[in-house]
What we know:
Elements: H1 19-27, E1 38-42, E2 45-51, E3 57-62, E4 67-75, E5 79-84, E6 92-98, E7 101-106, H2 117-125, E8 136-142, E9 145-153, E10 159-164, E11 177-179, E12 184-190, E13 197-203, E14 229-230, H3 242-250, E15 259-263, H4 279-293, E16 297-300, E17 304-305, E18 318-322, H5 329-341, E19 345-350, H6 376-379, E20 380-381, E21 386-387, H7 394-410, E22 415-418, H8 421-425, H9 447-463, E23 468-471, E24 493-495, H10 497-507, H11 519-522, E25 533-537, H12 549-552, H13 557-573, E26 577-581, H14 606-624, H15 626-629, E27 638-645, E28 650-657, E29 660-668, E30 674-680, E31 685-692, E32 708-714, E33 717-724, E34 728-734
Parallel strand pairs: 15-16, 15-26, 16-19, 19-22, 22-23, 23-24, 24-25, 25-26
Antiparallel strand pairs: 1-2, 2-5, 3-4, 3-6, 4-5, 6-7, 8-9, 9-12, 10-13, 11-12, 13-14, 17-18, 20-21, 27-28, 28-29, 29-34, 30-33, 31-32, 31-34, 32-33
Helix pairs in contact: 4-5, 7-9, 13-14
Amino acid sequence: xxxxxxxxxxxxxxxxxxxxxxxxxxxxxxxxxxxxxxxxxxxxxxxxxxxxxxxxxxxxxxxxxxxxxxxxxxxxxxxxxxxxxxxxxxxxxxxxxxxxxxxxxxxxxxxxxxxxxxxxxxxxxxxxxxxxxxxxxxxxxxxxxxxxxxxxxxxxxxxxxxxxxxxxxxxxxxxxxxxxxxxxxxxxxxxxxxxxxxxxxxxxxxxxxxxxxxxxxxxxxxxxxxxxxxxxxxxxxxxxxxxxxxxxxxxxxxxxxxxxxxxxxxxxxxxxxxxxxxxxxxxxxxxxxxxxxxxxxxxxxxxxxxxxxxxxxxxxxxxxxxxxxxxxxxxxxxxxxxxxxxxxxxxxxxxxxxxxxxxxxxxxxxxxxxxxxxxxxxxxxxxxxxxxxxxxxxxxxxxxxxxxxxxxxxxxxxxxxxxxxxxxxxxxxxxxxxxxxxxxxxxxxxxxxxxxxxxxxxxxxxxxxxxxxxxxxxxxxxxxxxxxxxxxxxxxxxxxxxxxxxxxxxxxxxxxxxxxxxxxxxxxxxxxxxxxxxxxxxxxxxxxxxxxxxxxxxxxxxxxxxxxxxxxxxxxxxxxxxxxxxxxxxxxxxxxxxxxxxxxxxxxxxxxxxxxxxxxxxxxxxxxxxxxxxxxxxxxxxxxxxxxxxxxxxxxxxxxxxxxxxxxxxxxxxxxxxxxxxxxxxxxxxxxxxxxxxxxxxxxxxxxxxxxxxxxxxxxxxxxxxxxxxxxxxxxxxxxx
Length: 737
C-alpha cells in the first residue's frame, strides 16, 4: 500500500497554520489545500487540520478507532487544528459535534494520491488507453478506507472541487489535488459510495466561478432535466455472450450477412402511460421481435447521456454514461448480453463530430476552450449551433479514443457507427469563404480529424477484434473503409448515401417516367465496390417533413405497397450490407417522431403485414444464401444480366459466391406484367423462385412462374423465358442436378 508523501508543512514553529492559509481555506481560494489540511509534520510530531463547517468541537481518531487528539477551532467558519498523539502519519476520522448533535467523517486530505507517475506520463503523452479506469468517479478501497476517487482534467482552472449532497454542494469542502504536470485534479473522498449525484465546481483562470460541470467521464447520470453525474458502482454484470463474441472475433464481417435494424430506444414502443421502457422491458420485447424479423444487428441512435429529447441523442453531454432514461448502466449491459445470447449484435451511434454548449457540459470546461477550439471558425458548428472538438489536442483525442474503447470493453458492443464524418473531414463544411481556416498545407481537409479517426480505428480494431466501425460519410472522400496502413481512414464500412438518394429519387417518379431515370439505378454499380458499403434507409429519410418510405413511393396505395416490397427485395439483392429504420419494416404511414411510439396497430392490416413478411423472408434469404451476402463488398460477386432495358424499367443481375448457388435478381419497376420476358442466365437447368414480392401472401396480385423457370441453351447463350410480375422483384436460385 502506497503511503502518503510527506508534505512540507505550511505552519509556524508552534505548528499553527498561517492566518492567511486559514482564511484562504475558509474562503475556498487556497491553491493547494493538501499543503494545509490533513496530517502534517510539526517538529517531532504531527498536527491535523480540517475544515468542517457547522462543527463546534472535533476529535481526531485513527481509522481503527483509536483517539488521536482534540482539535481546536481556529475560525468560527469551521477550521480546526491540533496536535496528534500519532507516531506515524496515517489517515484520520473525525468526530464532530455541535449543539444540535454529532457526526463522523473521514478526512480526505489525510490520504495520499491514487494516480501515480506512470499515469501522469501516459496521460501527458496522450497514449493512455485506460483513462476510463483512472478518470471519472470510481468506488475503491484506498489506504484502509472505502470511498470514491474523483479525477478530472481541467488544466487551466484555479480550483476544482467535488460537490454534492454529501457536502451540501459546498465547493470549499472537497477541493481537489492539482497534478500540475497533467492538468488532472484528483481527490479520494471516503465514506461515500455509489448512487451519489455530484458535479465539479470550477474556478476559472480569471477567478470566476463557472456553472457547475458534469463529469466528462461520468459512468452514470441523473435523469433529465437534472444534469448531475452519479457515482456508479463497479459493473457487476456476469456476461454469458462468449459464443457470440468468439464467432465475430474470427469472422470477416465483409463476408457475413449483416442486416441492421436501426432503433430509437425512446420511441420504438412506450408503456401504456407514455413513459419510456426500461432496458429490461426493451430486452423482453425488442430482442424477440428483431430475432423473429430476421435482422442480425440492432443499431441504436445514440444512447449516451443527453439533455434534450428532440436531439435523439446526437447532442450528447455524457459520452461515457448510458442515458438514465432507460434505467441504470447495468440494465444496458443486460440488454447487450441478452441480444448476444439471441445471436443479435448491438451497434451504437457515436458522435465525435460535435457537442452541445449546455452550461453543465464540456463547453469552456475550465473557463477556457479546452475540448473545443477558441476560434469559432474551427470550434463552432454552424449547422447545429454546437461546439467542435479540437482534434489537434492530444488530450481531446485521448478522451474520444478511450470512449470508443470503453463501449467495446465495458458493454461488449459490436460496433460504432460514427455520425457526421463529413463534417469532421472538411474545414469548410457548411461554411462560406472567410468563415474557415485552411490547414497547414493551405487545403480544406481537416488533417487533425483525419489523424484522430485513423487512431480511433487502429485502436478499436487492434484491441477489440470482432468490433466494427461504420462511417456516415456523405462525400466522395477516398478510402474511408480501407486500412490506415493503405492510406485509408480505417473504418470497416461506410454508409452508401448515394444509393439511398438515387433509389428514393427513382421510386418517387411515376412508373411511366422511370425509363428516363434508368441511370439512377445503374449508376450506383459504378462505385458499389469502391468502399465496404452499408445500404441505409435510415431515420434521416423519415423526419423533418420528408414523410415515410411508403409515402415516397409513387402511385396509388396498392402501387405504393407493391413498389416498396419490390424496392426492399431489390435492396436485399443489391451488393452491400442492409439497414432499415424501425417502422419501415411494416410501412409506417406517419412520419417518425421521437415523442410517440410506432403505430404497431398497422400490423393488424394485411398490406402492412405483407411488408413485414416480405422483410422477414428477405432477411432469411439474405442470411441463408451465401450468394446474397458473402461477396457484398467484392465485384466478383456481382454481374449484370440486364442493364439497359430502360423502356421496360427492368433490371437483372447475378449474385454469386464460392460456397453458394448463384441467384438472379430481377426487378420490374412498372405496373405492367412482362409476359415471355427473356432473361440471360449463366447456367442451363432449373432456377427456383425463392421470393416474388408480387405473391398474394404479401398483398400482391399473385402473378408468377409457378415457383420455377427452366433455362435453356439457345443461339450460343443460356436464357429463360418468364413472367415478370408488375412492380415486383423476384429472385431465382440455380438448382444443381
